Design the sequence.
């Protein structure tokens, strides 16, 4: 058997962008694209085909890049593995993190230029993306904070609205960053943070790992790199950031302060409501001598894939602990890379798919629908999954429905009942969701060929080039009557 050849991972943002450009996957946009809507519109039109590079957007000196992780195959390529091994490689890195390596401040390119008392809006080319967004948003900023109780870091990507020269509102969902903030708030302290803009592709991907609290995602980035990630201590706090990043915003999430944030076009392709959110006070901005600003167009492929692939790897590992017959999973793009999960199962017992469905719902509260299919169905092909549902599923026998469970607070359908009166549901009613599971598997045993998938012998192996006559033509003109 031929061993699959791996290639070295792309551990540097500029090296990755140069590689994409050399292979025709970067579109160089003309100077002057407006930061309000126009930049996002251009990047969205190129989504999944080419990354978009914007020199002097809105007349600013700092260029903007978007879309450099907008295809699943590109992400596998950045990792140096075949697409078929993408989840396994990420899962291995998450299971074997490498402690980062701190470098002296003077050696970190992310601190070559220092701006004290900066004006974020004047200094950085922060775009306004969607039609009803309440101003410019940082969408590709990795927020790094330390647990006030343990000192261990967490990395996440949060939407951040820039609404003043040195103040920004942030959405923190009830996950690790929010837990750190609540602990700091309990102690009567602000939470020091760093916002990293322009990280290498693998560190960006690692930031989305579903890891337990007090597991630093920068260590998963090191495992993906194959070596400890170089980090540097911030100038105004103890947070460590990737030393090779483009731009760092240092600041504090203020204790007890809330300001209006939103609406904002989120990944479900709807707007989230305007609400009072936590506030970041900006202290310092550092960057490379000639930095590149990264923006993610919300709800497009770069946004969806960066979130879905790490989740898939975690979900696959979680399911396989109890069900070794599970061989693959896929969070569908139609389900916004979060809500709809397809599971491939080598079924050995009747009823087993329903157990898999229940296990998947317990694995992550965002999951709203699970379809379990047999191992002859490709879960990355929505047409094959739909075929399995059409021919192997009966609603009165194979449907699982769970009411009143916790779901995603960003799914607008979950908050309809609670928000009918004033437009915003109270926090304890947000995200209440029904869950639906579909067992689209055939019976373990069945009569003759009732559930045998039709195939033609040789259809996968026949050499078409050997049979198609190069340059051959056929004359379909009727022959003259004798």
Sequence:
């Amino acid at each position: 058997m031929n061993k699959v050849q791996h290639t070295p991972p792309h551990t540097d943002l500029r090296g990755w962008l140069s590689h994409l450009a050399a292979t025709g996957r970067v579109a160089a946009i003309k100077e002057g694209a407006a930061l309000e809507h126009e930049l996002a519109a251009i990047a969205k039109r190129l989504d999944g085909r080419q990354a978009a590079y914007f020199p002097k957007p809105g007349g600013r000196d700092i260029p903007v890049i978007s879309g450099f992780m907008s295809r699943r195959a590109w992400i596998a390529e950045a990792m140096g593995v075949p697409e078929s091994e993408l989840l396994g490689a990420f899962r291995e890195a998450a299971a074997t993190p490498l402690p980062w390596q701190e470098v002296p401040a003077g050696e970190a390119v992310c601190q070559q230029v220092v701006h004290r008392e900066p004006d974020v809006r004047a200094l950085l080319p922060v775009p306004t993306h969607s039609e009803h967004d309440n101003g410019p948003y940082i969408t590709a900023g990795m927020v790094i904070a330390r647990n006030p109780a343990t000192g261990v870091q967490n990395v996440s990507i949060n939407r951040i609205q820039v609404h003043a020269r040195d103040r920004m509102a942030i959405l923190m969902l009830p996950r690790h960053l929010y837990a750190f903030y609540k602990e700091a708030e309990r102690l009567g302290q602000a939470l020091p943070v760093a916002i990293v803009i322009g990280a290498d592709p693998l560190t960006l991907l690692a930031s989305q790992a579903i890891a337990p609290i007090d597991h630093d995602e920068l260590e998963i980035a090191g495992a993906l790199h194959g070596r400890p990630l170089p980090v540097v201590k911030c100038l105004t706090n103890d947070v460590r950031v990737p030393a090779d990043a483009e731009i760092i915003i240092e600041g504090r999430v203020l204790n007890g302060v809330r300001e209006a944030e939103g609406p904002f076009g989120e990944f479900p392709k709807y707007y989230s409501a305007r609400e009072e959110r936590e506030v970041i006070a900006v202290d310092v901005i550092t960057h490379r001598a000639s930095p590149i600003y990264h923006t993610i167009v919300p709800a497009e492929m770069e946004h969806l894939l960066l979130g879905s692939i790490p989740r898939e790897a975690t979900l696959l590992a979680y399911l396989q602990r109890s069900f070794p017959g599970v061989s693959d999973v896929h969070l569908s793009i139609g389900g916004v890379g979060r809500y709809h999960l397809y599971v491939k199962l080598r079924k050995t017992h009747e009823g087993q798919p329903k157990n898999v469905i229940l296990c998947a719902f317990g694995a992550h509260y965002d999951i709203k629908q699970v379809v379990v299919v047999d191992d002859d169905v490709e879960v990355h092909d929505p047409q094959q999954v739909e075929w399995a549902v059409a021919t192997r599923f009966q609603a009165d026998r194979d449907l699982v429905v769970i009411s009143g469970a916790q779901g995603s607070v960003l799914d607008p359908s979950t908050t309809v009942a609670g928000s009918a009166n004033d437009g915003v549901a109270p926090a304890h009613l947000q995200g209440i969701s029904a869950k639906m599971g579909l067992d689209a598997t055939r019976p373990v045993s069945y009569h003759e060929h009732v559930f045998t998938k039709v195939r033609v012998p040789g259809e996968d192996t026949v050499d078409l080039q050997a049979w198609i006559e190069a340059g051959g033509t056929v004359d379909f003109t009727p022959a003259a009557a004798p």
Notes: The domain at 323-418+428-439 is CATH 3.40.1670.10 (UbiD C-terminal domain-like).
